[in-house]
């Protein structure tokens, strides 16, 4: 094997440097992955975060294995030179001196620029910080740099409150847990309250890549009712609204995220007259439900729905979203219109 020229050796060194950087990236990815797995608080975004972190570990390992190929030349050369014991000391010395001089210049510049640089070992620290910052941008979660990016829920709810909420209806939306950005969008926990009608707790997630809304958990109950997510409402009317919400959300969530959220707010808002408006079909307020619960108000409010293409231009007139029905009247209506 022949002697290598300095340019080639420099290439070897840069390959080694790269591989070392990748190793430290892997350590960082692994550390964050482990932290995530061990974390106590596994929120709604856990699954996404999990696969995201796992992917960055995989990606770094792949990078390392391809960089391993590049190291072969350097390692062969090192072995050859070591066997021959023919190190070019003069070259090594001059290169090392050159590098030290360059580092010294950089150190002086930094010292001039920053008071911090006066600390002992500041050069090392500055370089470590720089490397860490570079790594963070690849490996770590994006921290509040996204503060300038408007948050989905905050923006959409504000838009709905100022443009779409009927002015005469007492209806509020509050953040129980403020909106939190995730790797794939954001999550929040909101409380919706329609005076004298109902309160709804919703844990929502916005998926920015698919532009969809996900409902992780919801709970609809009476205004003065104290209960936990996992308990059923003590009132039959809210138990039924909770069941109805499963169907309603399924239809509402096929829209893009903003429309889904606005439809959802429209729907909850249409419950403001839960106990006071008559049924669209039978025009009565109370309907006999059962000997146990006796009379119930119209607890159905129709919701926005994407119609199949065949139906969208048919002559059947669907009542506007928010129309009130008794559960039984609604089922009758659905059967009659085959929807
Ligand atoms: Zn009715």
Automatic annotation (TrEMBL):
A cellular-component GO term for this protein: mediator complex
GO MF annotations, alphabetized: transcription coactivator activity
Pfam family, one: Med27
Organism: Mucor saturninus
Top-rank lineage group of the source organism: Eukaryota
Keywords, comma-separated and alphabetical: Coiled coil, Nucleus, Transcription, Transcription regulation
GO biological process, one term: regulation of transcription by RNA polymerase II
UniProt-annotated location(s): Nucleus
Protein name listed in UniProt: Uncharacterized protein
Protein family (similarity comment): Belongs to the Mediator complex subunit 27 family.
Coiled-coil residue spans: 91-120
InterPro entries: Mediator_Med27
Main location: nucleus
